[in-house]
Each structure stands twice: as C-alpha cells, then as structure tokens.
Amino acid sequence: MGVVNVTPDSFSDGGLWFDEAAAIRHGLDLVAEGADLVDVGGESTRPGATRVSLEEELRRVVPVIRGLSAEGVTVSVDTMRAEVARATVEAGAQLVNDVSGGLADPGMADLVAATGVPYVVMHWRGHSDSMDALAVYADVVSEVREELARRVESLLAAGVTESQIVLDPGLGFAKQPAHRHDWALLAGMDKLLALGYPLMIGASRKRFLGTLLPAEDGSPRPAAERDDATVAVTALAAQAGAWCVRVHAVRPNADAVRVAAAWKRANA
C-alpha cells in the first residue's frame, strides 16, 4: 500500500502532494513502482495534529480518489469519518482504512456494512492530540489484541462481515518508543494473526525507527531518512505473515516483499 497524503502537515511528506494534480501523479508513480493499492488521506494523524473539518477533508480527497480510480488504480481512503468514507467509495475507493477502528465515528460500522468494502480496523485509543498520554500498558501485545478483538465483535454485531475485516496494531498510535511498544507488537505478530484476520503493518518512517537510529547528538533520525529501516521491517513483517505493509517509498519495500515471498517459497 503506497501512501498519498493530501495534507499540508503530515509528519513525513506534508505538503508535497497537497495539490490535486500532484497527488494524482504521485499515486500513479507509486503504482508504477509496485504498489498494489494507493491509500489517500486528507487528515494528518501525526502526534499532536488537530482535526480538519469534514468539508475540508472531502475537498482534499474526493477529487484525488476519483482521478486515480479513473486511471484504474485500486484506491483506499484513510479516514475516520463515515461521510468521507461514503463519498469516497462513491468516487471509486475500494477499501476504507480507519485509524480509529470505528471509534471516532459511530456511523462508520453501518457505512462499512452497507457498502461491503474491506475495512482496516486499527488499534486506537484517542485522537492525535491526546494519544501519547494514553500509551500505558501492562502488556502491550495482549492489550492491543484484546482491544482489537472487542472492535471486531462490535463490527460483526453491526453487520460487517468477517471477510471485510483487516486488522492493524496501530504502530505509533498511543505507542511510546521509549517503552518499545512498537517493537513488542512486531515481535508479537503471531498473537495478533491468531485472531484470524489479515494484518496490515504501518511502520513506514515512524518515530520508533528514528529513535532506534539516533544522530550523534542523540536526536532521532529525521523521518525522510528512515526508509532503509522501514524496508527491514517490511521484509520481516512479510516473512511473519503480514497481509500488507503501508509505506511511503514503494519500490524498495515492494522488492523486500518479493524477497520475503521467494524465501518462504524456497523453505516450503
């Protein structure tokens, strides 16, 4: 999954694809580099980010999704709002990627059930301006697993089918690098996969990679310089059974997925 942030303030590439034409062109470039689908988002969820209005989010994403879909691209929408999901599915989006797992908008479950589109349910404890304070766990793997299981139960009760559901442990969301929450979740992927649903991993350029690889002065490596570390996580996640990786730099990560697949075939 290649990322197209139609935002001025995303943590990694905010502003680069804010223009509609530039965003569409970037999405097409990601497909040419090996992306199987392109995830279009109009609201930054970086730590500390504040929300944009519904109208602004629609203005940002609908034309881009319509344009990419017209070019035959398989598009997902990265949104927490049911109204945005509805509008973008009508514009051609084929998957809804909700970082709140349906918790931010009580109408999302009904929308997903009604449309029948695949739905990525991410582990989430609160919005970006408060999530760091919510990163308190006794056992992060078991608690994330339990909270995802509860979200699945709620979605199924609302009429979402099992075949629609994809899970995401929410690396970086209410997870603290200092406590190695993200690493524990990656190492515990087998426990998350045991829930019985495909698993998406979104590690690309995130804080825990920058913290792992500090500069000489101890400051985290900048987001734009974390792609090599992202590729390493991608290869390991693919080997461990991830359904999808969500990344900014597609070509090297697509290569890593194919290497992992060849390795698994050779050991079959």
Explain this structure.
It is a single chain. This protein has 268 residues and is of the alpha/beta class. 43% of the residues lie in helices and 10% in strands. The strands form two sheets. The chain has a six-stranded parallel β-sheet with strand order 1-2-3-4-5-6, covered by helices on one side. A two-stranded parallel ribbon has the order 7-8. Helix 2 (54-70) packs parallel to helix 3 (82-91) and helix 9 runs parallel beside helix 10. It is globular. 47% of the residues are buried. The mean pLDDT is 94.
Q: Please describe the biggest sheet, giving its number of strands, its sense, and whether it closes into a barrel.
A: 6 strands, parallel
Radius of gyration: 17 Å
Total helices: the number is 10
| Integer average pLDDT | 94
Regions with little confidence, pLDDT below 50 for 5+ residues: none
Reading the helices and strands in chain order gives EHEHEHEHEHEHHEHHEH
Helical content, roughly? 40-55%
Strand fraction: 5-15%
Morphology call: globular
Order of strands across the biggest sheet? 1-2-3-4-5-6
Which class best fits the helix and strand makeup? alpha/beta
- DSSP E strands, number: 8
What is the CA–CA distance across the termini? Answer: 26 Å
